[in-house]
Each structure stands twice: as C-alpha cells, then as structure tokens.
C-alpha cells in the first residue's frame, strides 16, 4: 500500500515529509538513524556484484524479490547481436559483469530484464516505463541518477554497493531525514528552451555542491507545465547540484503517463491509488529549509563550458573569465577547467568546433528527446560523428514506429541499441583524447566520455544543432528555419 | 571492518575543488566484480599519462605520499556517482580519512561503511591544512577532533551512529538484520 499518508493532524507537511513519514519502520533518534522501508529497489550490473557476494558470504536471501527489479545498461554494447547471435561486448570484463548479474538474479530469484529482452534499458528509463516507479514510493538503486524517479513524487535516491546489500537483505536502509530545498520556477519557459536548459541553469545557480544534504522539490507553474519526460530530465540532474533527490508532486500529467503501464494497479485499485496519490503534494504553508526562485522566462538554451555541470551558461554567452572570479578556490577551479577544455575566456562558445555528438542517457534518452533531436536532423546532414542512443528497447520501438530512426540515419547519424553508451564510456562507445563532444548526458567531468575527452552538456536540440553545424550552435536558429 | 580510533599521519594535499568520483576512480575500472586491488586505479587519469607511465609531478606519485593515511582535498569532495569503488580505491591506496570543507552525501555514506573517515572542517582550518602539505595531523574519532599542524585542535561533526560503528568495527547490515521484528511488523501493517 504505497503512498499511504497517515494523518498527523494540522501541521502542514511537504511532499518529502509525507513520503518519509509513511516509510519509517523505526524512527530516528540521537543515537540511531531511522530504519526506512524501501518500496522499489532497482538493480544493474555495475554496483550489485559485491552486494550479492555479501549475501552469499552471510547466507542471506533477497528479502522481497517482488520489490527488486533488475536490468543491464552500463557495460552493454549498443551494437546489435553479431551473426553468430552473440553480443559484441567491448571486453571480456564487461561480458563477465553482465553474466554475473544474470547468475545473481537467477540464484536469488530477482526479476531481470537483461540484454536481449524487450524491456531492457537504462535503469532510470526502464523503471518508470515498467510502471514500477509510482507516486509516494521510496525508490533506491546503486546509481546516483536514481533521483530521476522523483519526477513521480517518489523519494528516490542513489545508494552505494554496501547499501544495495542492506536493501537486498532487509528491504530497509539506515537514513537520517534530509533537509528540504524548494526550487520554485516562476513564469513559463520560452520556445526552444526545455527541461535540460532549466536544470543546467538551476545547477549553475546552486553550484555543484549547493544542494548537499537536501532533497529538492521543484515547484511553480513552469514545473507544472512540464511533461513527465521533462520532469524526469529535471529530477535526474538534482544530484549534479549535490542533492540526493529531486521531487515533483504528482498530478494528472503523472497519472495519465502511468495509466496502463505493466506494474500499475488496474480497475478500482487504480482509482484508490490515484486518490491516495492526490494527497501527496505539499500542504499549503508547509515549510522548507531553503527556497530558491528561478524566472523561467529569462532562460535560454544552455551549454556547459567546464568540467562540472555547474559550469554552464547560455549557448549565446561568452566563456567566463577566471580573472573576474573573486574567490581564489573558485578561480583556480575555473582556470583548471578551461585549461582542460581548451577554451579561451571571453570568447563566444557559438562556433566552437566539435568532433562528436551524443544524444541519449537517463537524462535525455526518452521518446520526447528522440523527437527533439530528430526534428533538428530532419532533412539535414550531420557534419560529425553522431550517436543517437534510445534509453530503452521500448523507446527504440516507439521511435522506430514514428520513423525517427530513418530521420536519424538519413542525416548520417548512427541509430544504436539502448544503453548508457557514451554517457559513461564503459561499453566501448567513447570519445578520443582531446575531442569535443556535445552530449545530452549529465556529467562533463574530466574523462567521463573517454580519457582526455571534453564534454559540453546540452539539450537534445542543441546537440543535434551541433551535429548539423559541426560546431556549437543555437538550435533556435535551425528550428526557425534560418540556416 | 577494522575499528578506527586514532589516525596519525602526514597529509597528502589535493587542493582542487569539486573532485568528483570519476576522478577518484574512472568508470573503466568499475567492470570488476570484487573490491580488492583498486588502489592502483585511484586518481588514474591524473596519476598516469596516456601511455600508462606515472606522471612524476602528481602528488600521489611522490615518495612522500606513500604510507600517508590522510587526504586533504579542496571544497566539495566526492561529488558525482554513487560508485563505492571510490572509497574502496582510496582505502586500498592507504587512506583512512579525507578532510575537506564539504563532502558529497553519497560518497560520505559509502566512505563511512568502508573504514574511511570523512572529516569536514571549517574554512580556516582547511586553509591551514592546504598550506602545509605533508604536515603531520592526528585525528581522534572518539573525541571528534583533528589536531592541526600547529597543535590547534578542531572539532568535526559525525553522525553518532556512524561514529559508534567506526569505533567498534560494527557493520550496519548486522544492525539492520537485528531489526527484523520491526521490519516484519511494518510490512504486516501496510
Ligand atoms: S545513462 Fe549515464 S548517468 Fe544514466 S545510469 Fe547510465 S551511466 Fe549513469
């Protein structure tokens, strides 16, 4: 009975507090953190092997296999099966890790949608598609972008491998309640500006560590107006501001998106669930530990210029000058970032040549993202190597049903099999030392897309515009018809 | 997990801000299925040149860094991924504590479970540590103090339960397993 909200009388509560309260098994005290119940545990191949090993060593079982759901994404190839029916793994280690997850799921009775299955995908694209992520739930995964699932009004956060073991064995975690940070987005986003631009602007405002210790709740008319896909993009990158989780209160947009998915209730159980979910939004007068307000109408398409996601600016702006930075630490960090990126302070980023474009990942690998990229590629040719990687098998099928794969291929870009791919470069998809890549993923850390590679984070439209121009470009110029 | 009580060591200083988990251990080292031996991958992209040879100027390659148990890093250490490989790699290299002005949440949780003490100090103490690479420090977990090079003691915060677990080498899984009746009761009540 997820999302149950006990009535504690008149004290107004935030969304986070409601979800938290409903999952406390043992309350926290000065001496011990709370024992918090986990409704959904998502598992993938990279952060789980050592946790299953602990279960084996200690003779433990998976406590609730029905609340545990696995897929494969990080190490999996994005090229189709070879003629001999085998998958073209980058190396033996990647294959061994994937095999290990299959064995662990079989041994412990965990439902796995592995490589080759019709539901496989990047774990944070896959979970919501399965209808496994629902409002009011607690959701965890050994992956920091678990924040994505907060788009449904779930409390969803990443955990380490030790904690993966804790949840497998006990369905619980030891946690202290995080603080709350309200990010209110007033007004409306302008045409050509989307959720990715919004979250990059928010991170630039908060700083990469600014949300540490907090859960962000995104509020305001501009957030309400976002589709579920866009809300997932927004919540996904909460961790890039240091917040473990981001949340959006559920509403009709949420319920419409969820209805009919494999794991959601049906019939009267659905009606009862929706009635419960409607009680989740923060009460009027609920208090947050911090509040920040963003004016949506002031935002432009964004791009990063540095080596953390907070180093972002409007695509039309100039690379900032470290000399203008008063704080010595921040100045040194900006200087190091520009040196690594090979960018010159004061120069516009528009026109910066790029070598590779990547559209995909748990941030921007959903159907709307594929459509956004294809709309720019339609009838044009890419000038640089461009990979378009759907976030899941379902996204791939839906996109192909709309003919998006043909648009992508006709433009000269590669249409790949689902997976994390060039977001983390574990499966052989990577950029070379010194190359520039405009990427729709979430991290521009040094070497993230391949040792020595330089990443510029942006939206699917901005990435596709860069593919067509062979350089950083403003997608609004293309979609308005100007060359 | 071995208990931690007192850590006495010279420091290794990495002054960069926002050192992320991809720098602590790049993703290509995450393909294994056990925890052992990751110390050689710690900071691999800063430590080794493209051809695999050590970068002589990088602090972890210098003789003075060998045997050091305390890493002093710039503000906001450990942001990024949830990979527990990050504390595994630092611990395997020999570190038992990381000192910064801010430490990312998931990294901190992971470190606490692996005998790597996350120590958050104020900006002035941090500046003193950054300015004195290789200086000896003493960390007393029970007292929650760091003794700085000049002899001044500063207090650092740590969750009481985490402190108890580290001091006594208690693992959290054992504690959670002992909550079985409460967990079963909760499940029964939903
Ligand atoms: S797409 Fe990238 S960020 Fe998302 S789960 Fe995969 S590796 Fe992590």
Characteristics:
heterodimer, A: 483 residues, alpha/beta, 5-stranded parallel sheet, 17 helices, 19 strands, 32% helix, 16% strand, B: 190 residues, Aconitase, domain 4, 7-stranded mixed sheet, 8 helices, 7 strands, binds iron/sulfur cluster
Oligomer: heterodimer
- Judging from the principal axes of the Cα atoms, what is the shape of chain B? globular
Largest sheet of chain A: 5 strands, parallel
The helix/strand order of chain B is: EHHEHEHEHEEEHHH
| Largest sheet strand order of chain A | 5-4-3-6-7
Helix/strand structural class of chain B: alpha/beta
Name of the CATH homologous superfamily of chain B: Aconitase, domain 4
Terminal-residue CA separation of chain B: 35 Å
The CATH topology of chain B is given as: Aconitase, domain 4
Count of DSSP strands of chain B: 7
How much beta of chain B, percentage-wise?
15-25%
- Radius of gyration based on Cα positions of chain A: 22 Å
Task: Give the helix level of chain B as a range of percent.
Answer: 25-40%
Bound molecule kinds, no repeats: iron/sulfur cluster
- Name the CATH architecture of chain B: Alpha-Beta Barrel
